[in-house]
Amino acid sequence: xxxxQVSLHDDQxxxxxxxxxxxxxxxxxxxxxxxxxxxxxxxxxxxxxxSGKSTLLQLLSAQLAPSAxxxxxxxxxxxxxxxxxxxxAERRFLFRTDWGFVHQDPAQGLRMAVSAGANVGExxxxxxxxxxxxxxxxxxxxxxxxxxxxxxxxxxxxxxxxGMRQRLQIARNLVTEPRLxxxxxxxxxxxxSVQARLLDLMRNLVSELGLAAIVVTHDLAVARLLSHRVMVxxxxxxxxxxxxxxxxxxxxxxxxxxxxxxILPA
Amino acid sequence: xxxxxxxFAYLDEQTKRMIRRAILKAIAIPGxxxxxxxxxxxxxYGWGTGGVQVTAAILGPADxxxxxxxxxxxxxxxxxxxxxxxxxxxxxxxxxxxxATVIQTRHRIPEAPLHAGQVLVYQVPIPExxxxxxxxxxxxxxxxALGEYGLMHxxxxxxxxxxxxxxxxxxxxxxxxARYVMDPSPTPKFDNPKMDNCPALQLFGAGREKRIYAIPPxxxxxxxxxxxxxxxxxxxxxxxxxxxxxxxxxxxxxTDDKGGRMFVCSDxxxxxxxxxxxxxxxxxxxxxxxxxxx
Amino acid sequence: MTAMIDITNAGKTxxxxxxxxxELPVVRGVSFQVEPGECVVLSGPSGAGKSSILKMIFGNYRxxxxxxxxxxxxxxxxxxxxxxxxxxxxxxxxxxxxxxFLRAVPRVATIDVVAEPLIANGTARAEAREKxxxxxxxxxxxxxxxxxxxxxxxGGEQQRVNIARGFxxxxxxxxxxxxxxxxxxxxxxxxxxxxxxxxxxxxxxVAIVHDDEIRHLIADRIVDVTSFAAAA
Lengths: 266, 294, 232
Hints:
The structure holds three protein chains of three kinds.
Chain A: E1 15-24, E2 27-37, E3 42-46, H1 53-60, E4 68-74, E5 80-82, H2 88-97, E6 99-102, H3 106-109, H4 116-126, H5 132-145, H6 162-174, E7 180-184, H7 192-209, E8 212-217, H8 220-226, E9 229-234, E10 237-243, H9 244-249, H10 254-261
Parallel strand pairs in A: 3-8, 3-9, 6-7, 7-8
Antiparallel strand pairs in A: 1-2, 1-4, 4-5, 9-10
Helix pairs in contact in A: 4-5, 4-6, 5-6, 6-7
Chain B: H1 13-28, E1 34-35, H2 49-58, E2 64-69, H3 76-88, E3 92-93, E4 102-106, E5 119-123, H4 137-146, H5 150-163, E6 174-176, E7 180-182, H6 192-195, E8 201-206, E9 211-215, E10 221-223, E11 250-254, E12 261-265, H7 268-276
Parallel strand pairs in B: 2-3, 2-4, 4-5, 5-8
Antiparallel strand pairs in B: 1-9, 6-7, 6-10, 8-9, 11-12
Chain C: E1 5-16, E2 22-34, E3 39-43, H1 50-58, E4 65-72, E5 75-78, H2 84-93, E6 95-98, H3 110-120, H4 125-138, H5 155-167, E7 173-177, H6 185-200, E8 204-208, H7 212-218, E9 221-224
Parallel strand pairs in C: 3-8, 3-9, 6-7, 7-8
Antiparallel strand pairs in C: 1-2, 1-4, 4-5
């Protein structure tokens, strides 16, 4: 079986969700979610639209304040910090350095009018890189890693195809060597053939860099290919969780069985 | 008809107090854009409404005012603003940089060194240096607050990627007092070094955008750059055709329809004083005398 | 000597919620041990639960009860209650699974598909590819195919690629799910040879094989699964 490898040398969790919940008035978007994510581990959050998976991703990435519970993150100095207790400057710094966020729509994650090189280089400049040549070389090597022709380094992403844009977005996020990447339906808007290439690329990068990732997807094939572990959400709650192949090959909950049975055979 | 009952320098005293408070705050936080309740002025936006309000708020009866537009004392914009304050404040006006106590400017810093006690008032169209890449005001404010200025370098990166060097030649971003990144208004980058450690007070007014910012005297002003692409001044590689100056910022003047052109100082006061002192350039001619076309 | 696999009273029932909650008992009371260097072959008719047991030992199917002890990194770990990351750790350094079907990632060259388990465990890429090449040659996959992704191969070729991928590792436990099905005689013989080699390397194996001849060649012991059959 081809399956992603996980590094298990580190026994300290990277991110811990503790009884997380979010209400909008009387509407519960997400409730009582607890789990620990370890370095190098890829967690898929699956469920249909409205299941609360996107809300959960926003809570986990500190873009939304929880109504209940908390999210803690192990900073690079090894200290586990409550995200809600971080100052805005710290939180934004985390977002630019130790975290990545890959949006479903690359236009949300890229500066569409700025060249690919500057899109990749921006995070470096934000942390104080001040040497044009080195920034450009680094950007160029990242374009290569995500299989974008380096001759297009000075083209703006609006001249790129959908798949290239998504790969550029990934390069832009990974250039600062984050330890955790959030992905919101990363293959959502792409053709099937383009999806396969992107998934393959993400899978390799994640294992080469030992990245931890939280991937929100409604596509169980994406979860199977990318993730070690899966959480199934329904009505704002996690109804089933476990090893990805365990949950997909031996689903227990009625809803998970329904989800698994509704996919077309590969 | 009797003289209209204008208040001194056109604006009412309450408005001036409001603007002065904004100016004081701006001086206290060098480079920080202070919002202010910009008034309607009897001129269109883009003609210096921000600068005029700042000037009106700081002007006193003893001040001597100079107004320049692109370095020149005798263009429409400069003349009309000078006349405006002559009429509404009755202050003395001058074209001499050295004699002026308040200098309102569009797009230039005079060539003659400024001295302590002078105030240079800039007219600013777009005060936000980050606007080029970040359209959201909420976001740019946050970026200033947190000192997140990576985006400024993205702009410079784009220049080098596209043109091989930093092609931004005016409104070249600076960092003030090692804290805020500031747009020096559309002055040519040739003038940027003059802002650094300047003995005069520099005030910036943006009327449409309702922002005032300042560089107090003797404040460090650094032009942003890359280690391997350092900031450079730029001027046409020629002496002034009228006064022969080799160190001034030059305008290119097209003289005929056959490609003839000449380079002359953009600072008319500087050029004029040099000519009076006997300096001559290749094309110098007596004033008011038509040059024969051939 | 400590058994590599020690299963006690393990059971599995599927609950089919989409069919109104019908319970499908598969196996119960599964108990057997596998020692290092031993190949245990599971026997029994189709549907008796042989594959399910293999999947339970791999942590792919969850157990309803009982215990699946695996000797992993100097200690026994119970897969029936292990955390997902412990299961992954077991798969990474202790238990390998060779199925009939290759689930390969598109676009990856055959030689890299085979070399991947070694590289993931820290072997240098060049060395891993060399071993992968040797195994592919042994399993009669022509060298001109090595650079192509196996998804374009015939069923038999894909199976041999999968066998190479399964046997390349130096894991102490291997689970073999019909490794010789649909192979020709020559390749079957190679697989038998590979299994013998693994035995000499003290690898514990659990296999499902339908071919009687092969079963006799590789089995040290046969466990009859019908005794674990759960009454429906």
